[in-house]
Amino acid sequence: MAVFATVLALAACGTQIEDDPSLSVGPTVPTEDGASGTGDADESDPTATPPAATGTATDDEPTSADPGGETGTGTSGTGEGSGTAGTAPAEAPSTTEEPPGEAGSEGAPDALPAFAAPTEVRAQDAAGPAALLVDDVRVGLQDGFDRVVLDLSGTGEVGWNVQYVPDPALDGSGFPVDLAGAAVLGVTAQGMAYPEPGDPAYDDGVVVVDGGELLAVTEVLRGPPFEGQVQVFVGTETEAPFRVFRLSGPERLVIDVQHAG
Question: Which of 156, 165, 222 is CA-nearest to residue 193?
């Protein structure tokens, strides 16, 4: 725990940490009152303004099973990482480039991309000039899939590169990431900026969100900004199909992981 606390402190400062392959970055033991990092990913209206970036997200909107909106319920928090990273895919990944604006900024179900096979890569360049911050990470249980939402602020449109990774590690430090589950979906959010002095966006350093009642997602780890990118690792029960898209007004990056069966 002392070593991990050091990692958190250094990551929060945006400082590169010397490699130590014996150290795994993972979640911490939850507090008894659950006051840290709890939230919902319930949004019947995807254009609605999300809660303030305090690590807690609630919504007064009723939930539904509409796959085009950010609906469903989920909790976030800290937990003990007990799983291992995912194994390498059986075949070489293929990359799908998606033009900016596809997947529906309005969140209409018929505009969403199809779920990609676990061996595929989903990528799209940021549109800008982009200078975005990750204000919050939320998770939610949906009908047929689990949803991870990155709430963003700043300017421009977020870009991404998403694929299952056999050996997840933090950029800069190289520290391995150990999350519960059998696989890890690596998400690189692009078009990111360092916060202005006094901006608390990354004061918590590395943040881990517990999947709680989710069926496919076990834990989510958000790293600090590094060279215009922010890494997010999604621990999953297995290498399941996934999809990625952005929503605007406000800017969000959404990752859905399909339930087994």
Answer: 156
Condensed to tens digits (0 to 9), the pLDDT of residues 77-131 reads 443 333 433 444 444 444 444 443 333 334 444 579 999 999 999 999 999 899 9
**Host domain of residue 181:** 2-32+39-46+71-258
Q: Rounded to whole angstroms, how far apart are CA atoms 41 and 47?
A: 13
Evaluate whether 62 touches 69 at the Cβ level (below 8 Å): no
Domain containing residue 109: CATH number: 2.60.40.3500
Kindly state whether residue 106 falls inside one of the protein's structural domains: yes
Between 2-11, 36-45, 131-140, the lowest mean confidence (pLDDT) is in: 2-11
Q: Number of folded domains in the chain?
A: 1
- Cα separation of 102 and 35, whole Å? 37
207 falls within a domain: yes
- How far is it, in rounded angstroms, from Cα 213 to Cα 27? 17
pLDDT mean over 135-140: 97
Contact 14, 30 (CB under 8 A): no
Beta-sheet pairing, 127-141 with 95-97 = unpaired
Residue 142 CA to residue 214 CA, distance in Å, equals 9
0.70 cut: is pTM over it? Answer: no
pLDDT of residue 110: 56
